[in-house]
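Customer escalation, tier 2.

The customer says the design service returned an amino acid string that "doesn't look like it belongs to this structure." They asked us to rerun it and document both sides in this ticket. The original structure tokens are below, unchanged.
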């Protein structure tokens, strides 16, 4: 297949059947479907999910199994589209375009720190699996408001007891693991001098910005996956711009040096659907 044919297929909306719908937390569900292109995606890439008659929204791929052509997304119920998605059952049909965007870079990383908040774990869990496969030492900080909201704790814990690494869970109310914000505990570990080859972050933007500033101060290499309103996902509409970058084409995964170039916007502003800048 020529590269141009491959791009056409990626951009084509494919109708897929939900093979399995699974509760993860009280507000988050995972949806598994069969699609060869998504099953071959790299950790960090995302897809556009069409919920028939409602809307089309961007979602990270949270698991890929190329051998059996299965892929998974993990969505929090926040608004119209994701609420409709949560009402769907095994056997229902959705539309899928993609996979799109950049992936987490893992080559030459021997010691990694992963910091995830909320549904950020959707894209970070396949990353942790890739790093373990690459035989890297992996430390995961996994944060949520309460014990019930911790996403993929079991999946990551099982992975790291097979591989070389450890997971630290944090909750804001102290109902599980360490009490407080995940960034506070990650910061303590970094300040103690444990300097990984790479820190990977995905979660609320303020949290990612905090970790970005810390990595700048400590000179630790950094990657983060950004979320923005997104319509086309192919670089045309401009809804997802952050400074000179488009999150859909240049991201969603950005390096620390790229984020340094757009630090007036990253952590401070995003664009609404009318293109106007809005403060976080
Ligand atoms: C690359 C990328 C990957 C994503 N991966 C995931 C994922 O794995 N799991 C997941 O649950 N969510 C993910 N999101 C966010 C998800 O796309 C939004 O939550 C979704 O579009 C909300 O649609 P809605 O109609 O349900 O809510 P709406 O009614 O549109 O909005 C509800 C709330 O969500 C906010 N919101 C809406 N769209 C976005 C958006 N694109 N980015 C940030 N905030 C938004 C709104 O400001 C509002 O506060 C991702 C977003 C991007 C850009």
């Amino acid at each position: 297949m020529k590269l141009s044919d491959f791009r056409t297929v990626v951009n084509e909306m494919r109708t897929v059947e939900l093979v399995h719908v699974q509760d993860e937390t009280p507000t988050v569900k995972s949806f598994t479907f069969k699609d060869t292109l998504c099953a071959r995606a790299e950790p960090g890439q995302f897809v556009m999910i069409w919920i028939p008659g409602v809307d089309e929204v961007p979602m990270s791929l949270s698991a890929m199994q190329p051998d059996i052509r299965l892929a998974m997304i993990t969505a929090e119920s926040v608004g119209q589209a994701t609420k409709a998605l949560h009402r769907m059952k095994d056997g229902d049909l959705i539309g899928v375009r993609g996979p799109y965007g950049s992936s987490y870079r893992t080559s030459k990383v021997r010691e990694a720190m992963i910091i995830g908040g909320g549904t950020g774990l959707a894209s970070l869990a396949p990353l942790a699996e890739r790093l373990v496969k690459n035989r890297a030492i992996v430390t995961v900080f996994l944060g949520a408001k309460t014990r019930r909201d911790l996403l993929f704790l079991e999946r990551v814990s099982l992975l790291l007891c097979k591989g070389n690494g450890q997971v630290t869970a944090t909750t804001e109310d102290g109902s599980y693991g360490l009490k407080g914000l995940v960034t506070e505990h990650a910061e303590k570990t970094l300040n103690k001098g444990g300097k990984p080859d790479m820190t990977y972050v995905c979660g609320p933007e303020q949290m990612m910005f905090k970790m970005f500033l810390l990595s700048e101060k400590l000179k630790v290499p950094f990657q983060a996956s950004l979320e923005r309103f997104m319509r086309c996902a192919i670089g045309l509409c401009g809804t997802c711009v952050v400074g000179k970058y488009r999150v859909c084409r240049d991201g969603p995964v950005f390096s620390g040096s790229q984020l340094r170039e757009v630090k007036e916007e990253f952590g401070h502003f995003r664009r609404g659907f009318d293109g106007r800048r809005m403060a976080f």
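Tier 2 assessment: The sequence is consistent with the input. The mean pLDDT is 94. The CA atoms of residues 25 and 153 lie 11 Å apart. Sent an explanation to the customer and offered a walkthrough call.
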